[in-house]
Structures are given as C-alpha cells and as structure tokens.
Fold:
Amino acid sequence: MKRGFILLLLLEAVFTLAACRQAATPEPLSIDATSTAEATATLAPTNTPLPTETAVPPATNTPSPPPTETPEPTPTQGPNLLSLFDEMPVIEREQGNKYLNGGAVIFHDGQFHMFSNFFNFWPGETMTYYYTSPDGRSWTRAQEEPLFTIDDVSLDGRGALVLSGLVQPDGTWTLYYHTFTSSSAEGEIGVATADDPLGPWTFRRTAVLRPGSRGEWDDLQVMRVNVLPQEDGYVMYYAGVNRQSESRIGMAFSEDGISWEKYDDPTTSEAPYADSDPILEPVLEWEGRWLGRPEVVQTADGWVMLYEGGGGNQTGLAVSEDGVRFERYAANPILTRDNMVEGYTFFQGALFHTDDTYFYLIEAGNGRVGTDIFLYTYEGSLFGE
Structure:
C-alpha cells in the first residue's frame, strides 16, 4: 500500500513537469532585416555597471609642443644667412683717410654706383667719393678728388653722411644724407641733386625731414636715411632718436622726394606718438633700446630690411609684404662679431639687390686703426613659400 502511494506521487510529478516545459516555450520571432537597427536602438540600457576607469600614468617630460604662429612672410634660412665674400675688403681706405663706409649705392644702366663717405674722426669733416662696379664686387674710384665735402653741405652739422640715392625718371641724380654734430644735438635729413654722378652737386638749403616736436618719439634726430622710388612717389625709412637716447625706425612718404609726410597710425593720439609713429621698435633683449641704420630693398617677393640692434655689432633681418608691417626673422641677429672678420667691429652698411642676389657692403675694421668696406652676399629668396 505504501509503495503504491509513492509510485502514484512520482507519476503525478512527471506529468506536471512536462506541462510546465510546454507552456514556457515561446513562439519563434520573425524579424525583418530592415528593422534590426531600429530594434537595437530602442533597447533600454541594462543595469550592468560600467567598468571602472583605469588610472592613466602621468605624462612624460616630452609633451607635444603647442603649435606656434608662423608669420607670413618669413625668411627661409638659418642664422648664417650672409656669406662673407672675401676676408679682404672690396674697398680699402685711402691714405690720409681713416674711416669709410659704403654710403649710397645705386644700380643704374647696368652698373653699380657708390657714393662713399670718408672721414678721420666722428663727428668730423666728411668727404664723399664716387666709385663704380660692373658686378658689385670689384670697385674703381672714378676720380681722385671728392665729389663734395661737409663744406658744401648747406645744413648745419659737424658731419654729413650720404646714405641713400636714386636716379629720377628725368635723369636727375639724387642723394639723401643726414647731419650730425653730437649725440645730444639735433640732426636732420637733406638732399642734393646733379645731372651727372660726377656733379656738380646742388644742395637744397632746407632740410626735407626734421625731428618731431618735443616729447615725440623722434624729437632729437632723424638720421640713417633710406629712400626708395615708388609708382606714386617715394618712401623713406629712417632712424628716429629721442632725448632719452632711444632709437626706433620710422617711415615717411613723398610725391616729389622733397616734401615728406611721416607715417602716422590713426589709432595713436598721445605723445610720444601724437604726430607720427615708428614702424619698428626695440622689443627683443638683443635690441636693447636701439633700432637704427635701416637698409631696405624692394624685391619681387616683398620688402627686405636689415637693421642695427642694441647700438652696434648686431644686425637683424625683417621682411614685409607691404613695406609697413615688418616681421622679424626668428633667428636674429643674423650678423654679429662671431661671423665678422676676426677682431673687427662693424658699423654702417649699404644693402642692394639685383639678379636674385643681395649685396651688403659694410664698414668694418679696428676702430682705432681704421675701417674698410667688406662684402656679404646672399643668393635666393628670403621669403617662405
């Protein structure tokens, strides 16, 4: 009886389990292939926790540098842009004259013309001689006597340096110069003209550019003049010195080469920039408080300027697309005593450009013994692609 009862219970359990399995089996789903993405997109997120974030080790000391802004245009070469043509000078000082510089260089009718300044002390009596060259490298003095001396200059000054020249469309030869008496005396810019480079030269009695009014950035001296012809007139670059012995580079415009208007930024209205503005100021450590001796040429690529920084023995490079806004070369200065003839210091330079070659004639030597003119060159473009 007991065994029969147990057997009955086992049979009942088997039938019950079979019934449950049949009820739990779902009908097969028919999923259209085009609805798969939609079905997946509507799935609710599960409650499965996200994996914990693995700690990232600290960055090394070689992170990727942030991008730096590259000015356009920018010079393309390294710091030793200029190559010394020869350890020997291309023009040597003459007996009886201690110092000389390249002064003004003009390329006209397939020939180079130089109006070089000679003097025995500075400031002091200056004399201007005339040289010619077929290639910018070998020079011949045209005559033994100077073209003119400080005694012929109509403006006041103990010395006068001719530093820029051009030939006007009507054939008139024109030279620009600045006067100098001392570091604390006013200096101004004058002009002389002639029908022939050998003269006679006529000096205009009044200055064509004078220092700014008291308190302006160029209120003591305007000097180191550089004039270039343009389609609608002329543009002048010059060094402006204030009464605190600070020098900046300025710019002026003229329709006739006689009456000049200084560059003026309309956004500045207070001294020292009330009347005019410089286009380049000393901002870098090597430039100190002094930017001077601007030498500018205009090429098919743009404008190229060499300038003095820090008061001497350092030359910087800047380039411009419009002749007003200049970008400094990142590896300035490009010329120092390290790449000058050993033991020499250098002073005034003269820059000119022809046939894709830059010529830089620079006064250099032992200051106690005298100076001569050396030549540096660079071939190619100074602008980036």
In short: Confidence is low (pLDDT under 50) at residues 1-72.
